[in-house]
Specification:
Length: 256
Amino acid sequence: MTLHPDEAQLVERAILGRIGGKAVRAIARDWCDLGVTGTRGGRPNAQTVTQIMTAPRVCGYRANRGELLLVPETRQPVLGQWEPIVPPEQWHAVCATFSPGSLYLHRGTGAPRLAGKKKTAPRHLATGFLRCGAERRDGGACRGALCAQKGRSKQSPYVYTCRSCGRCSISGPLADEALERLLFSEPQSGMMSSEAERQHWRSGGMRLEEKHRIIASALVCCIVRPGVKGAHSWDHSRVEPMWRCAGGAVPGETPV
Ligand SMILES: [Zn+2]
């Protein structure tokens, strides 16, 4: 019910590292080096680390036999009585780094299958931070995660597309550029107020993992408005930030 401070910190760091592209095996090695053992004395491995990071309980959600428990009336996840380690956005983001077959929610209680490292490590700036702004048929907001896919044009070699409804897509370079602009121009972004950090980012020497850590500390996520068919100019305002300091609850989602 209450968090073990050291363990919670380890799990949070592992999740942020994974979102930033760290290999699960490297996280397991870190834990071994720190002398972490399971309740029965076992050494952490890629499988156990994956199970811990992708378990819904890390963000306060309850699950049973691989199914998230939902409140029947609202279809919102049922929250447990325990303290969450990360916000739901980050749990979704870490789950999105594994192929669907290995997701906790799809695999049930059986052994997880680990996806290949190459395929799963995010390679793009906005991966894990974009949520769908399309309307569902019932009028509610979709809020599905947008995932990077190969694009078809020179200007957009990759695009972020909603996995849930498929009705919201945005050019990869456009979304990454919009996100970067937000971090550099908005006073709310907080972390980027450090001049040294700005310069490091701009110098091109900053690793994606480090950038993701900065984004995660400033933003809950960005809501992407569906584009207008046939519009050829880039509209940066389609990417709307949900700043962490502004309260940070995603509209249509129960704050934890
Ligand atoms: Zn959607």
